[in-house]
Amino acid sequence: TRRELLRDVPLHFGDIRHHDVARSALEATRPEVVVHLANPADTQFAINNIVEFTSLMMDGTSALLEECRLHDVRRFVYVSSSMVYGDFKTDPLAETAPLDSREPYGCLKFASEQLVNTYRYLHGMETVAVRPSAVYGRGGNEHQVVARFLADALHGRPLRVEGGDTSLDFTHVDDVARGIVLAALHPDVQHSEFNLSAGQSHRILHLAELIAGSVKGCSVEVVGRRAHSPKRGSLDIRRAREHLGFEPMIDLRSGVEEIL
After folding, report:
1. pLDDT of residue 85
2. Vertex 39, ends 249 and 138: CA angle to 5°?
3. HEC sequence for the chain
4. Which phi and psi angles does 208 have, rounded to 5°?
5. Angle separating helix axes 204-212 and 145-154, nearest 10 degrees
């Protein structure tokens, strides 16, 4: 699916922790804007592989930033995560909320945001961090809850919901992509952080019931919530609406039906 979507895009393969990889790609393309998405989107991977994950996040981001500086990249868009907030203290939650992640994924996303910001202060590079939430859709991460539930349903396995009252702001990848494009190309980005989501949370149990209602013979089980999972909810997306012209277009039911 990814190759099909990128069939007209020149591809350069490599590990961004190695300066020569970023250098060769930048010299070949000479971009004005770089969007940095090169991190594993898997919170459990971060917990189980903290040393490797830290290297990917920090060494990769710092190498890419430095090569962007040397190649006169005007704007650097870092795709962060709503996990930087930790437990949501309000619902909806705005960008001005305290950042208090208690697990490696969110902590290192925040650390990377801070590193990106230093290039704005030190070198005058335009930098923007966008914070998506529970992204799902084509080409998605098989560990993400929507993809996992769909795979379980289609293979006859029960859908295991970890915490009956747990909620997420599920966001279709097309909406996130539109928001990233706006952050990359908007002529006057007035903030350095933007929430990018549907702006409306749903209980994970509701998602499971939605899928189970569309797949014959599918069952739902509610089990205990993971101890390290932060309390989530809706993101406040007014800043992205007002300053970027961002507007989510795909609701959860339509997005799930599309994948099914």
Report:
1. 97
2. 35
3. CHHHHCCCCCCCCCCCCCHHHHHHHHHHHCCCEEEECCCCCCHHHHHHCHHHHHHHHHHHHHHHHHHHHHCCCCEEEEECCHHHHECCCCCCECCCCCCECCCHHHHHHHHHHHHHHHHHHHHCCEEEEEEECCEECCCCCCCCHHHHHHHHHHCCCCEEEECCCCEECCEEHHHHHHHHHHHHHCCCCCCCEEEECCCCCEEHHHHHHHHHCCCCCCCEEEECCCCCCCCCCCECCHHHHHHHCCCCCCCHHHHHHHHC
4. -60, -45
5. 30
Structure token digits, residue 215: 């797949």
Judge whether 198 and 146 are in contact, CB under 8 Å. Answer: no
Q: pTM above the 0.85 mark?
A: yes
Tokens of 32: 């004005």
Q: What is the mean pLDDT of each run of 10 residues along the chain (260 residues)?
A: 76 92 95 94 90 95 97 97 95 95 94 97 97 90 88 93 90 97 94 96 95 92 81 96 97 92
Please state the φ and ψ torsions of residue 90, each to the nearest 5 degrees.
-135, 165
Going by C-alpha positions, the residue among 199, 185, 248 that lies closest to residue 35 is: 185
d(CA 159, CA 220): 5
Beta-bridge partners for 33: 75
Distance CA 212, CA 227 (A): 26
Q: Report d(CA 49, CA 45) in Å as an integer.
A: 6
Interatomic CA distance for residues 178 and 136, integer angstroms: 14
Residue type, 14: G
